[in-house]
Amino acid sequence: MSSSYLNFRNTIPWLILLLETLFIVRSYFLFLRLDGQYLLRDSYPEFQDVNHMVIFGFGFFLMVLRRYGFSSTGFNLLIIVLGVQCSVLVEDLFIFFYPQANEGVLKSIGKAIISMTAVVISTGAVLGKINLVQLIVMTLVELIVFYASRWINRTFLGVLDHLSLMHVHLFGAYFGLAVTSCFPEPSPGLDKNRSTPKSDLFSMLGSVFLWVFWPSFNSLLAESKTKAILNTYFALAVSAVSAFMLSALAGKDGKFRMTHIHGAVLAGGVTISFAAESISHPWIAMILGLLGSVITILGSHCLQSCLHPPLKIHDTSGVHFTFGLPAVLGVLAQVVLLVVREWTNSSSLDYLVLLHIGAFCQTISVALITGFITGSVLNTRLLKIIPVSKYFEDQIYWEFPHLAVGF
């Protein structure tokens, strides 16, 4: 374990120190003053819900690999706290030029945490195949590109700030897939590329955390918070029940499969994210939750085997069918609901539909293009790429002698 590609002493500490120095200097010159008027305008409980969701929920959710649990949770915490500071830096620069956009400190940090969800979702696609230096670089690049994509949607396509932020699932999933397509595939018989009952249990615990806090995630910036919370809950409830039903139908001998459950129970929250505050009837949210669960389980059951051989894309945590496809379904549902709601206003309907479809195409195109470029840059020896034989291995980064025997 003394090979040069495993020694990060001369890179990671100095990279983190450089970033923290930049963030501290930035806070001295640009950071919002902690005035009481700003704090009173913010909602601390909602902020904490989203914070718990991203830290605990995704931290456990990514613990799907049998010998990569410490890296999954530890690196998740590191990139989130680094990424949130980077995201707030970008937000501060925007507020510096547009002071009227100042919504308060907690609201700014809450938006930064939601933006980090895109990075965490992308991490699920490349989990175990990139080292910590590559992960930090990917985090910084993706956050900046995602903010640029949101700015395009808001400025040129008229997308509301809340809806532009809800593109995190779509952007994160396809950015991650584009990045992972640039890395070599793991060996088919690699024993570390699988889960154990213990890792599945921790991953399911992460899904429970995400399930509980998802209504706060969808309603943080919504104008009609009550609608957003209730519709998200109904969609999540139906997707959770449908997950067990569909898993029993798709599984062998009618038994439940944990890989089905821990992703499909969240499908309702992802699918409803775009239309949560605009739905007036709960049955619509419930149908979207059902459809989201269906597309997730069908994707995990057959899509991976259909797309993997021709495209050579190894999606470690299945983010494509857990977040990507339900997000696509949510965009389509938003367009359909818009057509139904504005049917009588035919003069502007075509224009509004075109804007929503344009925002979808812009988001997914930017994610794929920049993700592929980022993956190509990361897949260079300058950043100490990991050999395929060392994929999904905690022992590269952590001092755990017992991992050599088994975990």
From TrEMBL:
InterPro entries to which the protein is assigned, alphabetical: Ammonium/urea_transptr, NH4_transpt_AmtB-like_dom, RhesusRHD
Protein topology in the membrane: Multi-pass membrane protein
Keyword Transmembrane helix: yes
Cell compartment(s), UniProt: Membrane
MF terms in GO: ammonium channel activity
Superkingdom in the source lineage: Eukaryota
Keywords, alphabetical: Membrane, Transmembrane, Transmembrane helix
Stated name of the protein: RHL protein
Organism: Campylorhamphus procurvoides
